[in-house]
């Protein structure tokens, strides 16, 4: 029998955020350390609030080794309600999924989190009524359907003093100005315009308040089908070719309606396929990429590989690791998405054609592909603020249904799909293939993915700009404080202090050399002049003339087939994509230019930091990429301090003793799980596989042979 | 015969001087009161596949050794490879005992193993790691070999490490070549890779070496490692365990010593395994055992990017010249034959090439750390295919050279050195300027902008 420690007299209270309410609690809960099958762990209090589930270690006061990388909102023993993936109860050594009403209460509680943490709690020493309260409380608040207004987001927004200065480099795309600036930045303003048609959400509640369409599109046609069938601008390439997206019509039973819709689409295609517009290519993503259902299934299987109960589990799955990985199909989906993005980039860059991405809602795979294409083609999207602006543009304002896709309200599992995570996984592939090209680190991407489940930011907790705006007013809550002021996730200071934020910035980033200020001004001036020119005077280049002849033919094609796969279709030389890919890879990389991911089998990897970070068996003491990163940071500190010293010398200040040697971190002993490692085990024991593989049936004859064919017994005669 | 014998290249460094067995044993603190150097094999009379100089227990006489040799396959008796500086536990290597079907015993061998056990004053059992799968070890009895049975060696504990034989490894590499050449498998890359078993073999070799190293280090117990003949799997295990335990072997020179000692001098049959100069050689003797060892080293260096003084290019260069015959380093099967052919006089050493251009092979991230055991994680989650070696000919897979991370680090290093130099200059001028204050040569703001572009 395990000896129960005398409860310590001091009261441990949860750290509550403004608006956070304690809902239920249980004491003498035993939290197992994740690492082994032994029953090592700590006693503490398990609490559930309207924001999180939290384990409060009885001995927490003695915990003096503050981690270097600490989240100020979500501690290492905190699980936000939205971060809970699945809860299992253990009854007589049997695991059972807990979802709704409970008849019996379990001895153990296992909580699997969406950020891949696994918590094991033992309730055997807890009072029965406390067990009942805490288990049903946790299950109820984290697993059952919820009203939007019951999200912690609202309690926090009404209680927290919003004193963020809101000054952020991120472009939020909430104003017409933002869109116009983006058009100007990409020089898309010659042929595209930002429209105000959706003010008051007259067109559609799914579309943002402001968006950009080809200049020739009339307000009337935008309004006709609530914005469906309208090409919406995403981005313009340096050569003028544009990336567009369009939501299509749902399958219509009624023949005449569908005839009308078809005629409408034909008209639209005709308009935007003639000069001054480039040749248009269509890509119906719903047929050329895996479905949302496929993506959801793949990810569900994939994440399961990292939700490991114990060491035995780890080594048991290690034996067939590669085939297990493959069977999830997740990496293959990443590969296909990256390949599609390369195809689109080739059309824009080499073929100089406009690309129109088509999807029923234009808010899922369209977001993934258009974001990836921009990350690959526009080096601004590889800066931190540029990437954040991109996420605002394509996802948050673009109308990706975060609330439904993340199933934050537990309304319907059918709607759930990790579309945004898919993007982050794809971007990570690029980040690890081209480290100097990104201003941010993989840690940035990891904490961004974690932020999907932190409901104090509005960023990932609405389906559309309309939904956020209508719920912001606060009328239904009868608060007199006026509209809620939500926080944005891009305000990283809310979660991390400056020291921790340093881990989000890539020390290897090769910053773009800034052009001279005077040069910039003239460029801007020129640009404005261009704007004022009437459209008809835009001189078609000889190249476009060449395309124009083809245009008619293509339009016929489009009209004939309505919507189909046109990218990489038969009328294109089949090897052009391969050529583009190969020729790009044969040249040295320009980190500020076009960036193409390598997509051959061995190049697509598992995002180890995100998926392995909580698994002790996988940690390398003093190893991993963090080992080199720490060396680079150390050296940078040294260079900076030398710089300071030099300035002192120049100013002839009293030099010498005042200056200290740069503080070198003990990089050699960092764990590869850093900065996420929960337990900095100082164990010197190496991790040893507990199950090994011996299955070589197909080579039985070889296995049985000896190295050398010499009979030793003969030797002895 | 071999190009190596007519190669007239000149190098400032002489690689044949890198390895001197006596100084390597001295570096380990040997001989000492428990271990002695013996010249019994000076003319390769005891064992023609062993080096001339051996380290054995002080309490074993040369006559004992001769009697033990009779009971060990090809006379490869247990000798010392490495001694732990603190625990004094040792790594010994040898070949299998000649137990045979009838279960023969040899009192001298039994006593010799006990002498080894007692040499570091340990009371617990001597640990024997038989690299083979147990079924193979048993099967070996049929041809006169076998393993140390419990009855005969009550003071020893035997573990099988389940590493497969040279034929299995050869087949595995063949399969690996099939999935990367002429085209890299597209759609089912991971399962194709798994079906080659290459990384699983790497995992087993590393797991075995970790066990050896851990036993010596935290288990404070001496270990005896053997397979059948003790020149393939045994060499892999002892050298990898030594690499994990002794940071000296993680330097460029130390690694050269390690290869020279555990592989070349202890008779890994390079000529047979590679098939140097033997077109009609039976395929059966060839096997990528040394390549597999280098792959394991690469896996370790990948997991611990700051722990090794050498870089990936160093490992690739070694492998390139394993096959090139440009140097004498990997020619012939044993020291005995190499001496006979006067390899050291007539050919150049690979280490001459490398040591003459050390900077090319140096890992800029290396941080020297002494006496630290370095255990890789032998999990498939961390093991990866060495793309830059196995698929390097493929332009679509080729990694960016030079490595961008390394390059930027080098830039920073250059910048730091530049600052230090300028700072020294400044301090000198400032000191002289105390009397006459006037304009300075470079403005600090200029310097600042320079740094910013680098960040």
From TrEMBL, chain A:
This is Myotubularin-related protein 12. The keyword Lipid metabolism does not apply. Pfam families: 3-PAP, Myotub-related. It is found in: Cytoplasm, Myofibril, Sarcomere; Sarcoplasmic reticulum. The lineage of its organism: Eukaryota, Metazoa, Chordata, Craniata, Vertebrata. Residues 173-611 form the Myotubularin phosphatase domain. GO terms for biological process: phosphatidylinositol dephosphorylation. The keyword Cytoplasm applies. Belongs to the protein-tyrosine phosphatase family. Non-receptor class myotubularin subfamily. SUPFAM superfamilies: (Phosphotyrosine protein) phosphatases II, PH domain-like. Keywords: Cytoplasm, Sarcoplasmic reticulum.
TrEMBL record, chain B:
Residues 433-449 have a biased composition (Low complexity). Residues 196-243 form the Tyrosine specific protein phosphatases domain. InterPro entries: Myotubularin (IPR030564), Myotubularin-like_Pase_dom (IPR010569), Prot-tyrosine_phosphatase-like (IPR029021), Tyr_Pase_AS (IPR016130), Tyr_Pase_cat (IPR003595), Tyr_Pase_dom (IPR000387). GO terms for molecular function: phosphatidylinositol-3,5-bisphosphate 3-phosphatase activity; phosphatidylinositol-3-phosphate phosphatase activity. Substrate binds at residues 165-166, 227-233. SUPFAM superfamilies: (Phosphotyrosine protein) phosphatases II (SSF52799). Pfam families: Myotub-related (PF06602). This is MTM1 protein. It comes from Rhadina sibilatrix. The gene is Mtm1.
